[in-house]
Specification:
3 domains; Nucleotidyltransferase, domain 5; cell cycle; alpha+beta; cell division; single chain; elongated; 15 helices; five-stranded mixed beta sheet; ATPase_NBD
Amino acid sequence: MTSHSDLPIFGLDIGTRSVVGLLLKNNNTGYEILDIEIQEHEDRSMLDGQIHNVLSVTKVITSIKEKLEQKHGPLHKVCVAAAGRSLKTKRAIVELDISKKPIFEHQDILHLELSAVQKAQYEIAQEYEGKSVNYFCVGYSVLSYQLDGEEIGSLVDQSGYVASVEVIATFLPKVVVESLLAALSRSGLELEALTLEPIAAINVLIPPTMRRLNVALVDIGAGTSDIAITDSGTVTAYGMVPIAGDEITEAISDHFLLDFPEAEIVKRQLTWQDEVVLTDILGFETSLSKEDIIEPISKAIKTLATEITTEILNLNKKSPKAVMLVGGGSLTPNLARYIANSLQLPENRVAIRGIDAIKSLIIPEDIKAGPELVTPIGIAIAAKESPVEYVSIKVNDQIIRLFDIKKLTVGDGLLAAGIELSKLYGKPGMAIMVKVNERLISIPGEHGHPPRLEKNHQSCSLDAPLKDGDTIIVQSGANGKDAKATIGDVIETLPTKAISINEKMYTLQATILKNGQQALLTEKIVDRDEIIVQSANSIEEVLASLKLYDMIEQIKPFNVHINGSQVIFNNEDTLVKNGKKTTRNALVQDGDFLSIKMKSQPFITLEELLIHEKIEASYYITVYFNGESIEISKPLVIPKRGDDLLTEKSPIYAGDSLTITLNKKETFIFQDIFRFVDFNLTAQENKTLIILRNEKDATFSTPIHTGDHLEIKWVEKKSNKS
């Protein structure tokens, strides 16, 4: 009778193009390969690691099972893997306002990280039109912490305005496992153990002792290239690029006019033949060297290398220490060298690893120890030695099943239960928004309280370990109280000013208006109140607040209309601030000295108005008349108030409307002098009138100018003698 321990391990690698079935025997010192069967799918029944046609995949699995059973007896249990390409990777960023909560503790940061994971889980579900709880998180890595938009090493004990964390999280859809179980059941097989393909390959090539090294493992298949990263003793990230060996086959097919199966044969021959004979679709047979085939497809190989290295850098944020390539596609010529160059690694740091690298594995001579069998053998060994098991827990009396892929925590349980972590903390109380002098001020409410979190009726943290049978109770934290405040909370002190006006000291205190009504600092405020602190700023405002109305009248501008246009007359000699002339709108500061000249009459003269408006009232010349200096003038304006003719000394009152007609400047003539001097021009007997200008004869109409010497006199008439 055969003992249970003597039964071979049956492992299945269900790939995109083919299914590999193998039997392993555990001989206590290691494993021995007993048999291998490989069969390709008849149609596209697999896509990106997920079974799309259960019946078609079942047919291939059943065929492999029957072939192995013919040689080794009945097979009932099988080890399988969920494909690495089924893993969904998503980045997510979550921000948190920390302006009123300066201290950041470890649990706060963990809560923020898991909120980001949940956001990624939700976005994955949106992309694939499923529910977020139908995706299991199998791991996440923090890409960066940021404080106020700048990257920072740690958020612990940091203060600022906005904290954020960016994570990259990896999820496994439930449907992948469910479709696997359905295909196995239809094939008459029972699931003995489940693992993930990247974990399977890593377990046999990179033992835990090597995982402290930052290494990338790339499984290059037909349709996809699966990536896993190790560092600090664990698997830190998984990824996938939808490009692999088929792209190289297609490049060969396109360039050399081969059908796809023929191109696939040529690609495989490149790994071990220097000369390849190919027959194109037209029937022409050609013999080409290995280099002649590789050179035209180099672009496709470089593209594959670039896609792989871009995803490695995306997951790892830097070049790893080394890269291991497995899978049939890893044998693509020059691929390892291109990957090394792209990652700026020495070429000996990128290596193709075959099953001969698996320690304690006995390989029959008829089986080629290539890289394409690493994952199938890893599945059989890893699924047996470190299977992914289900963990059953309760979250708020709801039974939840988790994949025990990593060290599970209470946070993982809450994620699997679909509990929104971002809503666990109590909401902060309602803030009060008020306007103070047109500036919006927010008065925050009380902080929300942390959630109640228990594991097996004991208070716990989000990173507390989780095991089968644990019970979690989680309740949202209480909301914070609404904000309360008084006017004094938003206005610390009322500004005051001490100023001197005409050598008398005055103290000015600002006033408070709440919604247009005068208020005190102790009054309560509510949302949307408008607070205005009124402080007299200009000289006119200061005088009004001190009720010095007579002084206001002195500094008010004088408004009159000249020829229909308004004229504002400011008497600049009236107002002085700190020894300098100023205007009524000038700002008053604490300690200023004001001097206001008090006028005796409420009017100005026409002369003052004309000077202000720079209107020349008359023009003058100075002449000498009979030896005496005389100033004579002519008016240039005809000023009227209504029909009344005005003089330069006429008083002008605020609001007057004046008409001013401008005269042309005309040359003075001799007779103009008589308006300013008295001279008897009455004819005298026996005398004649002599008129001289600068000692030359002149007449009353002779033009005169400044500086002229004018002379007029009566002289005796000369007698006529015969």
